[in-house]
Amino acid sequence: MNEKIHHGRNIKRFREMMGIKQESLAFELGPDWSQKKISLLEQKEEVEEELLRQVAEILKVPADAIRSFTEEAAINIISSTLHDNAGSINNHCSLVFNPIDKWVEALEENKKLYERLLESEREKVELLKKMMEK
Length: 134
What we know:
Layout (H helix, E strand, L loop, with lengths): L6 H11 L4 H8 L5 H7 L7 H11 L3 H6 L2 H22 L6 H35 L1
Helix pairs in contact: 1-4, 2-3
């Protein structure tokens, strides 16, 4: 199946994943932009290269991600990951592991996730401060 990639829809997906409102994206793009204009942008099947790069930079995602993301690809990745993990669970269930090591690994992963979440929240606060100043 050769699905046409919809840039606007992908911009919307990434914007929502990042927790950014249309108004905030418009603010970051400059005074010529509004929430309505962002809404129209998200309806466009193809977005001009320079604008796509600007939006990607604001959303902190690679422009290629917006250019190439498809639901089919995401479903295939998730499906193959689930399939691979199901096989490995059956093959490795007899392995011995130290529960304390696993617990420490989980704590470290939680710490990394918390730090990323905290950084994201700091960026949102800075963005809100900028918006309030104008």
